[in-house]
Amino acid sequence: MSRYDPATLEPKWQHEWEKAGTFVARRSADKPKYYVLEMFPYPSGRIHIGHVRNYTMGDVIARYKLATGHNVLHPMGFDAFGMPAENAAMASGGHPADWTYQNIATMVAQMKPLGFGLDWSRMFATCDVEYYGQQQALFLDFLERGLVYRRAAVVNWDPVDMTVLANEQVIDGKGWRSGADVERRELTQWFFKISDFSGELLDALDRLDDWPAKVKTMQANWIGRSRGLQFGFDLVAPMADQTRIEVYTTRPDTLLGASFIGISPDHPIARALEAADPAVAEFCARARKGGTTEEAIEKAEKLGLDTGLRVRHPFDAEWQLPVWIANFILMDYGTGAIFGCPAHDARDLDFARKYHLPVISTFVPRTGAHALPEDGAPAFVPPKSETVRWTLPFAWAEEASGEQAVEAAIGFCEGRGIGQGVTKFRLRDWGLSRQRYWGCPIPVVHCDACGVVPETKENLPIELPRDVSFDIPGNPLDRHPTWRDCACPACGAPARRETDTMDTFVDSSWYFARFTAPRAQTPTDMAEAAYWMNVDQYIGGIEHAILHLLYSRFFARAMAICGHLPDTAIEPFDALFTQGMVTHAIYMTRDGAGRPVYHYPEEVTLRDGGGYLTDGRAVEIIPSAKMSKSKNNVVDPVAIIKAYGADTARWFVLSDSPPERDVEWTAAGAEATAKHLARVHRLASDIAQETSPANGADGDLLREMHKAIFDVTAGIDSFGFNAAIAKLYAFTNTLGKSTAGGTARRQAMLTLAQLMSPMTPHLAEEIWAMLGGAGLIANAPWPVADAAMLISDTVTLPIQINGKRKSEITVPKDMPKEEVEKIALADDAVQKALAGGQPKKLIVVPGRIVNVVI
RNA sequence: GCGGGCGUGAUGGAAUGGUAGACAUAUCGGACUUAAAAUCCGUGGGCCGUAUGGCCGUGGGGGUUCAAGUCCCCCCGCCCGCACCA
User: Which of A70, A217, A484, A775 could serve as A34's disulfide partner, Cβ 3.0–4.6 Å?
Assistant: First the structure.
């Protein structure tokens, strides 16, 4: 009898799968397709245990779908452009391409021992010329259709990375990668016209039934639709060339509560006043200062300056309102001016109280006592869906919701020529130009005669030059001696290439489509795309909830417009699952100066709930922390595989915690998993030898087997991998203890192997072969639970007395209710509780429970 | 501030409104062994009890229901996202 030895059996079965082409995706008419995809990795050089969890989840789905008769597409690639490669080149003097391709080779070598059922023949990296050349073709098609354009823009400039950042890449005023304070600069940049799709991208979220609500909410907030009125206040006395102040509001229904007009310090009128009056200039300078740091926003003292200007209320020419410059109004949102309605806006109320401006309520709660903001109460700002009682309605009933009032107010104003209803979005166009080398070159040419000219497709791909240096900051393409020189595609005269490259988010915005035909001579092959798209199940981290997923949704639409994807694929990901992290405790002590010192898990012995170093010192344990090299709590998958085998790693990352939650890696847990798998192997070896005859225990075992099939299948179908694994533990225990005959036990063991095969495929193949299963278990049809076997002849019903379990009875499964009632009432515990009396009520839920109310 | 999520044994966590704590880990006890490892069996929410058993128990308080971890309301705590957004 052989021992469980993953180090020999895992490579053996990986070789068998490769030989048989088990996971090569094939189109065929006889089977439904299933496309499962995990977010592809950045080639940092090492796989992370988080990758293992991510890809294991995808692999469980892929193998399960294969066993249930699908043509499965389960590809893998690398998101390979980006800054770290350039940083490495700057640090070590190497070349980004060498660094990247070496890392990819290393990571593939680390991933293959995990036995993922991937179609490696489709692998690509986004830095492959074959890929980014097709991306350039896409760019040209987008350009032709007006989906990408060029304009001068004030951009976020990262002074450390020396590049432009998208708004989405600026976090708390700092570059998302460098962490440096972002500066504002005006540059001519390329933009994707994602804002044209704002409404569509927002509305379509409602149809993504299999996406987490959280992700949809985050995207909806990001797109940020608001419905309002754009209108103007006429200045009583024109000022410079200004006669009117344009305002946008989402609450035109509160126009009769207007108390002042607020303008941004950057508003043209403020600028004009500033030029003429040093006092105004001094105020504006002060007002602009705040609001850049989070801390300043937190303290947020409202600052205002009365300009002395007056405007007329659009409803009443006699009603004049003062114009204030206020520090809380931003020039780049809306029109840079607001009308202040202190009664229904907390911020306006703060301001009005500070500067003694009027407060006028226009509506009050529908019922109940209430204090008015006029009298010192907080601003009354109910949700717009709530019905309120209007004290100053002008186009709707006394009782109406905010939504109804807003629409009525817009209609009223439009009817009188006072402005118009406008829908605005927060989402801005996506600036994609980056002043970097290691990215996809933007395929356009600058010609003195013709201006900006798109490259012709025949000239694609525009390849990155190999001979570049990174010894000085900035973009090496700018200072390359010859690469920039080219002929204008329009007139043939000498011209210069665009030296900006594309944001790396572009690369990841269509790779899922490319996987359907990774070697096609066009960006996609429509026949392949039509067959394989959409991605049926996409799996990745929540950190991509906004950027990557929103950009991909935009790209799918743009590609459909250009004929690179079918119209059915504009929402490319049917179902999305966001998995949790793998965490690990941090072990920490402090040095003489109180600074933390981090210790590797190998240096720490755990006992009595505490951790100790070899010298006996106690360490502080911070549980469930994100893995970080600097904290010495990173678990290396390569070491885990070496110690326990891939199946143990795969099983462990799925067990214990629900997949959407974080799971804490513990040495004890990994050890326990390895022991369990060895136990299963031993059990299978024992069963392979057994010849005991059929007996009375067979039926019970087979019933349990069918229950296990049912439960495990349901678990996999619903992403309940931890629950499925719990069932597998339970069934293994049942099988181990069962006294059933050899044939029944063998059948149960084969089924157990099949049910385990998505999680621990190598061990499953080994057992399958040991017990004489036909072919590869990977290709064996998934077992089906026999409904008849799930129901036993008798059921055990708990008996509750007043809702508390007191006893139980066992009755035939289809015994009529009346009979069950009789038996329940005859039960000792019930008789004792009744003490000769009659129950008030008797509830029998057939097959579930009996409740006696006394 | 707004929006969303979560809170269950020592621990990770189960539980279509129907037996709370499946499964696993720690612990403790036992078998096997000269011994250890490995393996196997048992114990594994709290309190009372020799025991059959009883009482309490899912962050706190209230409610709906024959029945609440689950549904509703209020409060506390933690996590995530957004935010001077007009």
Answer: A70
